[in-house]
Amino acid sequence: MRESDHIAALRSRAFLVLVGALFLSGCDMVVLKPAGDIALQQRNLILFATAVMLLIIVPVLVLTVVFAWRYRRGNPNKNYDPEFDHSTTLELVIWACPLLIIIALSAVTWTHTHLLDPFRPLERLGPGRPLAKGTKPLEVQVVALEWKWLFIYPEQGIATVNDLALPVDVPVRFSITSTDQFATFYAPTLAGMIYAMPGMDSKLNAVLNKPGQTWGYSGNYTGEGHSTMRFRLTGLRLADFDRWAREVKQGGGLPLEASRYLALEKPSEKVPFIRFSSVSPTLFDRIVNRCVEAGRPCMNQTMNHDMRHGGGSPDAGGLGSGTMPGHGSMPAPGDKPEAALEKDAGDKGSSPKVGMPVGPDYNARGRDAEKPGKPQTPKAQANP
């Protein structure tokens, strides 16, 4: 290769490296830059688990190079022992180190699984900042639509689309559901991913500790408009949050009623920020129970009816619109049946033996009768 061609190849490689670095410079590792206490604890758990695993990975990588260099073919000082087959010291190190790492990871993971349970109410606002008793969390109701997010503030009586504002250092209790698809409510700087499922009401307790603006999205693929299913997360001081809520309330926005929600529920992409100055107080419960449309029965009402009537109408004598009674369901109306063991011997009666199959394909002893194509064993003849 000529020198000019070699220089040109080096320049091309340098250009590719520079372009790659420019693209990577736009990546923001938001998971490692938490703005809330729950995200902070999750970040610390990730770092701890990574550090503990590196206690094995780094020595193994280093020793791989050391062994390859020390026992290379050209090393005259290498110690070659073809009779070596066992070392108690090596066995202890090989088995003890992974065992200790597994114990440490298991203990920390088990503890944090309970401490960071999304249903568990917060006990602190941050490290060394316990939550005062009687502190009431801010209620926020989250609905995953196609392909947008609806946030309802029931206490403030307002709602927004793709725009979530939270006060700093105030505990927040999220109620999360979805309309037709499984999605995940995920704000990396706030907390971990929580599933949003149709007909379900998931919970998340979290808090923001820093003002600022980040983004959240759905971590579960939901089809065509998934890539634009994002929402803006804004942390505000408490006074600024109260001012923001008043502006939404008094900003002349449209009320969010059942008819407007049904129009909003239709699939749409790249939906801009929308603010609603009022919202129906029962809208979220009707979304969870899938009865926003007029005349459609709610799931909870149907289930309560089925439980009261044992899975169906007693007048009909069978199952109604509900499911078949199972464990935990209410018994059918009528007298309680008496157990067989509690009856007298004369009251038990008798029944034919039903354990043995009968029919033209079986003989009197229960074995297969002669069938076409099946070999039969001749019966033994009695001695005269």
Question: How does this structure look, described?
Answer:
By secondary structure, this protein is of the alpha+beta class. It has eight helices and 14 strands. It has helices at 3-25, 37-70, 88-115, 238-250, 258-265, 283-288, 299-308, 345-348, and strands at 124-126, 129-130, 138-145, 148-153, 158-161, 163-167, 172-178, 183-186, 194-196, 202-206, 212-218, 230-236, 254-256, 274-279. The strands form three sheets. The protein has a seven-stranded mixed beta sheet with strand order 10-7-3-4-5-14-13. A five-stranded mixed beta sheet has the order 6-12-11-8-9. Strands 1-2 form a two-stranded antiparallel sheet. Helix 2 packs antiparallel against helix 3 (88-115). The longest helix has 34 residues, at 37-70. Mean pLDDT is 82; it is low at 312-330 and 361-384.
Q: Could you state the order of secondary-structure elements as H and E?
A: HHHEEEEEEEEEEEEHEHEHHH
CATH superfamily of the domain at 129-289: Cupredoxins -  blue copper proteins
Going across the biggest sheet, name each strand in turn: 10-7-3-4-5-14-13
Number of helices: 8
What structural class should be given to the helix and strand makeup?
Answer: alpha+beta
Compute the CA-based radius of gyration. Answer: 34 Å
Q: Describe the biggest sheet?
A: 7 strands, mixed
What is the CATH architecture assignment of the domain at 129-289?
Sandwich
Low-confidence stretches: 312-330, 361-384
Which CATH class of the domain at 129-289 applies here? Mainly Beta
Q: What gross morphology would you assign?
A: extended
The strand count comes to 14
Which topology of the domain at 129-289 does CATH recognise?
Answer: Immunoglobulin-like
Strand content: 15-25%
Mean pLDDT: 82
Proportion in helices: 25-40%
Distance between the termini: 107 Å
